[in-house]
Automatic annotation (TrEMBL):
Domain of life, per lineage: Bacteria
Name under which the protein is recorded: Deferrochelatase
Localization: Cell envelope
Protein species of origin: Streptomyces lincolnensis
Family, similarity comment: Belongs to the DyP-type peroxidase family.
Enzyme's top EC category: oxidoreductase
SUPFAM superfamilies: Dimeric alpha+beta barrel
PANTHER family linked: DEFERROCHELATASE, DEFERROCHELATASE/PEROXIDASE
One Gene Ontology term of the molecular function aspect: peroxidase activity
Gene Ontology CC annotation, any one: cytosol
Amino acid sequence: MAGVSRRKLLGTAGATGLVLGAAGGAVGYGARPAEATPLASVGTDEVMFHGKHQSGITQGLQARGHLVAFDLAAGAGRKEAAALMRRWSETARRLMAGEAMTQDDTDVARDAGPSSLTVTFGFGHSFFARTGLAKQRPVALDPLPDFSSDQLDKARSNGDLWVQIGANDALVAFHALRAIQKDAGGAARVRWQMNGFNRSPGATSHPMTARNLMGQLDGTRNPKPTESDFDRRIFVPSSGDPSWMADGSYAVVRRIRMLLDDWERLSVAAQENVIGRRKSNGAALTGGTETTAMDLEKADAQGNLVVPLNAHARITRPDQNGGAAMLRRPFSYHDGFDADGVPDAGLLFVCWQADPLRGFVPVQRKLDRGDALSQFIRHEASGLFAVPGGAAEGEYVGQRLLE
Ligand code: HEM
């Protein structure tokens, strides 16, 4: 059995199901991500499978991630989908608890604890017609609008089913990915898969918001679970519309390539004007620390705004977008170098919201008109998934839809 011996039993912090580090502190996203976990507890940290919400939404960033979409096999419908969700839920529950698979475990995660493993399941637009459930499809799953700067690869976009796997150990994450793929059996086939990473727990002695591959602190202004409007912004209300989405959320997934050669040619000062924040500590260009409020009106001696009008961190603010907000919980990716030496690297941008039309869509519409960052990135794949609420004990994820 894989790593159950010395694992600490860690509970969830209220409804959000935050993982607790060894010191008992919540490792919430946007607080201090994975780095806050003392190294000794990396393997033993456990996130609960059962809960009000699915795991993998409010937990701190994990060092490894796999995003994988499946399409139902020809002939597979609602019955097969229900059986698959039941299998997947049991696998997720076992592995998140650090238990081995009952049959044919590959031993890949042997000796490791659950390492904050989370497994999150979602349904894409096409799932509902295939399972005869078109009437149950939420309006919020209507396809995202086309954006003028999109260069999307259809083969790596969307899909009937989506699984997000995250863990603080690469072997634990792969072990879960392989188990999920094998569980699919004849019912579903992998449509696309993407692999990502974040900083490893313990890598820095002064924990701070994680950096992306452009070197910026990314996640500073994320909504925090402690804020009174957090649930309203991120989760579908418990009253649910449709009811099977109660306490669920919508995930927008974008594979965003960073044009790193162009970016890295900029001076640090120019890079900081693109975002509107300092590269060193994430503080707004108007001063203070990472958490000091940005002064949107402040001008320099020549009368120019200190945070340029097209700076990414100005344009994306909720107060510039009719209150639109989302929880960004990305992984970085690097899929090697093109033949001409250009890195195929960037952000597996995953953002969570109660309604994409009050989150991702209005903000991306604005970015699409050209913020300063746009010329250094390229959206190459896209997905939108309905992620139902968490499964209660004895339930599987999606049961309220499929039974
Ligand atoms: C803020 C980077 C794409 C939405 C930020 C910040 C950075 C950043 C460095 C400032 C620190 C922070 O508050 O996190 C990037 C990079 C991107 C990217 C490198 C692409 C590779 C996007 C996209 C969206 C988005 C596609 C949504 C459509 C936001 C939001 C904020 C933000 C909502 C916070 C605004 C606030 O509340 O003040 N981003 N971003 N970003 N970004 Fe992005």
